[in-house]
Every structure is written in C-alpha cells, then in structure tokens.
Amino acid sequence: MSKLSYIALLSCVLSLILFSCSKNESEAGEYDNWQARNQVYVDSIARLAQQGTNKWTRALVYYIPKEYADANPGNNNIYVYVQKLQAGYGTVKSLYSDSVRVFYRGRLIPSRSYPEGHVFGQSFTEKSIYEIDEKTAVPTLLAVSQNVPGFCQALQDMVEGEICHMVIPYYVGYGSNSSSTYSNIPDYSTLIFDVKLVKVYARGENTSWR
C-alpha cells in the first residue's frame, strides 16, 4: 500500500470514529439530567395549579394519605395536574371499578429532538385531539383501575365529552425504573396526556362500541 493510500485510509477510519462518537454523544444527551429536568417541569405546573392559573387544578392521588401530603407540602410528585380544555356533555364520573372509552395521546416533556415531547402512545393520528372524526374513529377501551395511579385519578374526575390535559409526575406514573418495562419511557419520566373521555361503563355493562 502506498503512503498516500495509507493516509487516505487512516483519514477515513478516523472520520468514521469521530462520526460514531458524535452520534453516540448526541443520542446520550437526549435525556441527560432527566430527573432534574422533569422535576423543574412538574414544579412549574404545580405553581400554576396552586395559583389556579389557566384552569390548572391538582388532585391528590388516591393511595397517598392526606396526612402525608399535609406533612410534605413541597412534594409536588404526589399529585396529578389537570387542565380542563373542553367541558363535557355528561354528568356521570367514572369509578375505580368502571371501564371507559377514551381518545388519548401521551408524551414526555420537551427534549432536544422532540420540542413538543416524544409521543410514547396514542389512540388517534390526527394532529389535534379536536380534529378526531368520532363518526368513524373508535375510542380505546380501558379499565380505569388498570392505568397508572395519576391517570386513574384524573379519569375519575372527568365526565363524558370532557377533554383534559394531564401532567403526571413519575411518582404517580411509571416510577423511577420505567425503562426496565417500557423502552421508550426513560426513568423518572413525567407523563403528559391529552385525553377525551367518550363513554363510561359501569362494572358488568356491555362495552361494545355502538
């Protein structure tokens, strides 16, 4: 091999190594300081809820004792935060033992590659939950009790037809070790949902869609 060929080959190898390292660093940086970043996000929403700004409210999740909440007023991770976006047409709220049909989209908090938050799950493909054609779309059937605690709590405070924006801290979401079960949800992730509650079914009721 000539000296020039050797130099060209070495240059190519170094370029590939640098590209690979740059790519790995970029990927690793997506969720750097993830727990701290999520806490900042939750705390900012908690302040809005405590002030009653922009229709934000908070609810203590059902399995958290009120005595614990009173003794730990700075722990914002034991609440679910809800912003009511559209009033419902129903009057009945779901119970823990009920089933519901919903349209939903779940995201993480904004990050470098996902300025609106990585979508980890959804039951509709339209850009907005307001754009769903309910004449043809089929809402997802869920057992209220089978959801993460924060989502379960928020569902029980909705009526049919209502659209809500939910912020669920990791403590009442998938927890501090979510990545062991869900590869697309990092540990300590805040869950952000847009949800429309379409129908509530009491236990034992026929849940067939139309």
Give the helix proportion (percent range): 25-40%
Report the end-to-end length measured between terminal Cα atoms. Answer: 75 Å
Outline the biggest β-sheet. Answer: 7 strands, antiparallel
The SSE string, one letter per element, is HHEHEEEEHEE
Low-confidence stretches: 3-10, 16-27
Kindly estimate the percentage of residues that lie in beta strands according to DSSP: 15-25%
What is the radius of gyration computed over CA atoms, rounded to a whole number of angstroms?
22 Å
Overall mean pLDDT score? Answer: 89
Q: Regarding CATH, which class of the largest domain?
A: Alpha Beta
Number of strands: 7
What is the number of independent domains? 2
Corresponding CATH architecture of the largest domain: Roll
Question: What is the count of DSSP helices, taking H or I runs of 4+ residues?
Answer: 4
What structural class is derived from the secondary structure elements?
alpha+beta
CATH fold-level topology of the largest domain? Chitinase A, domain 3
Taken from the alpha-carbon principal axes, the silhouette is globular
